[in-house]
């Protein structure tokens, strides 16, 4: 297919932007709607349906139940050889709703899809908006990768709200585990010597982890909570449990950290006479490695909208979380930029960020973010060398993470 550049590139980008502008009222309404009724991982029934409906009304073909998840879907438009995935998230956080702004992610993904659909035939695109549940907990994208939902996708894009603009955002690899200690109940006053205190095992493990922190390598993080610690003060707890998350800049470093933390868990059991079991509570999240070319183009688009993204040389200094979009970028080219929403200094997972995620700055991020992602994809589609690069990589792909 002959590819066009120059003035026609601008024409396609402006066409896509105009479509997003025309849909802006509906996109913002979707963002507010999802924000108003937050749903947790794997239970985003209403949010997924609302997202699907807006796409279906614009001619996208919807297939639900992807990867065995009721709230996962693929919405497809076009039949071109270059398949672009646009990832939509819509799960919320327990207790603080959409304090991570996934309502903005879903609405901007729909807007991106609508803008690209308008130019899909001209650019030889197939546009696939992929509904990805359970990013906060559960690894929906990791499950979708294994189920084949990205098998035909040459490149994937999405964006995430935050307090500042970051074109080349990265994230940490993550392992999340549940550790359960089994001891023996007894009366805490009458016969404490007959009990085996599972809560003490938790304490020993936590102290061990606290002492381990002085030996962590840069970029390694450990954090956790006690989820179960006994039912009454006069009963020696026979069962106690914790949830712990380990993070590192790279998967290899994470594996080293896991070994040390698991030894701390074992120390708790050994010191108290308990048994213990470990269960991964989510698929591992791999580090986010964005595609350099897509990052550079998205940075230019951010700047063209009057935004000031963090300079590339300082992006590595920005504190990182983790995302299952990292798993996607280990398999295919992708980006996960951060778009600022005027949060007044609040960061994600804070109550004030939840409030900001429905304010005018967030609405602006929905519309501008959709335009910037669409324009980035259009530039990929029109650049013969880069288009060939991602298609060649797709043809050679053999690994699912």
UniProtKB/TrEMBL annotation:
Q: Which residues cross the membrane?
A: none
Q: Which residues form the signal peptide?
A: none
GO cellular component term of the entry, any: cytoplasm
* Single Gene Ontology MF annotation: para-aminobenzoyl-glutamate hydrolase activity
Q: Which CDD domains match?
A: M20_ACY1L2-like
A single GO BP term for this record reads: folic acid catabolic process
**Locate the Peptidase M20 dimerisation domain: which residues?**
177-266
Keyword terms of this UniProt record: Hydrolase
Q: Which Pfam families match?
A: M20_dimer, Peptidase_M20
Q: Which domain of life is it from?
A: Bacteria
Keyword Hydrolase applies: yes
Family, similarity comment: Belongs to the peptidase M20A family.
Q: What is this protein called?
A: Peptidase M20 domain-containing protein 2
Q: Which organism is it from?
A: Mycobacteroides abscessus MAB_091912_2446
Which taxonomic lineage is given here?
Bacteria, Bacillati, Actinomycetota, Actinomycetes, Mycobacteriales
């Amino acid at each position: 297919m002959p590819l066009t550049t120059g003035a026609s590139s601008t024409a396609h980008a402006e066409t896509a932007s105009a479509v997003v502008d025309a849909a802006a009222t509906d996109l913002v309404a979707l963002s507010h709607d999802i924000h108003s009724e937050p749903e947790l991982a794997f239970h985003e029934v209403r949010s997924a349906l609302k997202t699907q409906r807006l796409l279906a009304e614009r001619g996208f073909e919807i297939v639900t139940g992807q990867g065995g998840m009721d709230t996962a879907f693929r919405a497809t438009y076009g039949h071109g050889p270059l398949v672009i995935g646009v990832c939509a998230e819509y799960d919320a956080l327990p207790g603080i709703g959409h304090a991570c702004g996934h309502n903005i992610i879903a609405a901007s993904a729909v807007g991106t899809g609508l803008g690209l659909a308008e130019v899909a035939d001209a650019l030889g695109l197939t546009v696939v908006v992929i509904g990805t549940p359970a990013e906060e907990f559960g690894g929906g994208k990791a499950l979708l990768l294994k189920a084949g939902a990205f098998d035909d996708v040459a490149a994937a894009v999405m964006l995430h709200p935050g307090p500042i603009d970051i074109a080349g955002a990265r994230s940490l690899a993550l392992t999340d585990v549940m550790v359960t200690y089994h001891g023996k109940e007894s009366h805490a006053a009458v016969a404490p010597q007959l009990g085996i205190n599972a809560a003490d095992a938790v304490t020993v493990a936590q102290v061990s982890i606290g002492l381990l922190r002085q030996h962590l390598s840069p970029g390694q993080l450990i954090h956790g909570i006690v989820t179960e610690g006994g039912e009454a003060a006069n009963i020696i707890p026979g069962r106690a449990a914790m949830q712990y998350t380990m993070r590192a800049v790279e998967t290899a470093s994470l594996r080293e950290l896991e070994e040390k933390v698991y030894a701390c868990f074992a120390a708790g059991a050994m010191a108290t006479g308990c048994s213990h079991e470990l269960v991964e509570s989510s698929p591992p999240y791999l580090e986010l490695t964005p595609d350099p070319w897509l990052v550079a183009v998205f940075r230019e688009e951010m700047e063209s909208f009057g935004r000031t993204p963090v300079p590339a040389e300082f992006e590595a200094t920005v504190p990182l979380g983790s995302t299952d979009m990292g798993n996607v970028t280990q398999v295919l080219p992708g980006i996960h930029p951060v778009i600022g929403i005027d949060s007044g200094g609040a960061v994600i997972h804070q109550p004030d960020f939840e409030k900001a995620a429905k304010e005018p700055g967030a609405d602006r991020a929905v519309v501008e973010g959709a335009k910037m992602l669409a324009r980035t994809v259009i530039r990929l589609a029109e650049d013969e060398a880069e288009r060939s690069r991602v298609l060649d990589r797709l043809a050679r792909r053999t690994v699912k993470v």
